[in-house]
Design a protein that fits this description.
This protein is mainly alpha-helical. It has one domain. The chain is 72% helix and 0% strand. It is built from five helices and no strands. The protein is rod-shaped. The model has no long low-confidence stretch (mean pLDDT 92).
Length: 116
Amino acid sequence: MNIPIWTKPALNGAVVGELAMAVVGFTWGGWVTGGTSRKNSATETSTGVAMALTPYCIEKSKADPLAAAVLTEFKAAGSYARSGIVEKAGWATPLGADKPNGELAKSCQLEISKTL
């Protein structure tokens, strides 16, 4: 079987074009791998849950009988320690959960800071 002489340059061009398309797609085209996609999905889900539960956290802080003492500690603390105070107070623990949600604590402390 005789293979035409133009086959080798055509195949080389196809390989180079494929590599160039992959580089452009992953660099500027917004393409991601499956692992990156799963990581991004988990982050967005956690952030969405926190945003949905922030009003619950605010209401829980208003209903807490020890809120005045916690808010005094909250005002005195730096911004880096405030989410820990919200977690310790139990305001960032969703119903049925055993431990506080870190993203919810961050979101809640931002909302509480706005009202102070």
